[in-house]
């Protein structure tokens, strides 16, 4: 499939390296909104309209986005339970079709099941092209008021307290800012663990980013422990913790 006539500012399909075949497919890793549908990019919409199939983490969520922008490309599911057979099937389709990979929100592959397909496409010799888009990680980081020159993304914190404390202890001495995802149901317990392991350093907790009730709470870890101990948290959270200063002092 050829992605139609070129338009100003549009990046056409890249070279396919060793394969050297102009008709082989490309895997497009497409960033999608993390809440506000207006955050979709023009390039992402063009790619989604012109690929042969869209592999979506949740077809119901993606269908809402496609319906809003009148995108009619076929959907297929690709989630954490899809298994190696689905990875193989989508990789085989790349022999002569373009595939777009999307997650429920943000960039595919970050704390979602996109990685196996990306890895398989690369190993099979197909081009993998990122179509950048919204990111809860970066949105929370730039709004946190904490240093942004270097950061360490931890993904979702472990569910169990012991495992969570070990994960935090492994990065406690880093001077880079720490970023992690957490659910509202475990937020209070995770903050208690963070206080015990990281000490009372500065942090920010961002929730419902880009949505109607978006909020970023800033303070020390102990202040957020107190706040969310008396106020039930709602929405998915992105947590940002200050790194450990080189002098060793917290705050």
Let me know the number of strands.
10
Radius of gyration: 20 Å
Categorize the overall geometry: elongated
- Percent of residues in β-strands: 15-25%
The sequence of SSEs as H and E is: EHEHEHEHEHEHEHEEHE
Number of discrete helical segments: 8
**CATH T-level fold name of the largest domain:** Cobalt-precorrin-4 Transmethylase, domain 1
Strands across the major sheet, in which order?
3-2-4-1-5
CATH class of the largest domain, named Alpha Beta
How far the N terminus sits from the C terminus, by CA atoms, comes to 55 Å
- pLDDT below 50 for ≥5 consecutive residues: which ranges? 1-12, 15-20
Explain the overall architecture.
This protein has helices at 42-50, 59-68, 83-93, 115-123, 136-144, 161-169, 187-198, 221-230; strands spanning 26-30, 53-56, 75-77, 99-102, 127-131, 151-156, 177-182, 202-207, 215-220, 237-241. By secondary structure, it is of the alpha/beta class. The chain folds into two domains: 22-131, Cobalt-precorrin-4 Transmethylase, domain 1; 136-241, Tetrapyrrole methylase, C-terminal domain (Methyltransferase, Cobalt-precorrin-4 Transmethylase, Domain 2, 2-Layer Sandwich). It has a five-stranded parallel β-sheet with strand order 3-2-4-1-5. It has a five-stranded mixed β-sheet with strand order 6-7-10-8-9. A hairpin with a 7-residue loop joins strand 8 and strand 9 (215-220). Helix 6 (161-169) crosses helix 7. It is elongated, with a radius of gyration of 20 Å. It starts with 25 loop residues before the first strand and ends in a 10-residue tail after the last strand. Mean pLDDT is 90; it is low at 1-12 and 15-20.
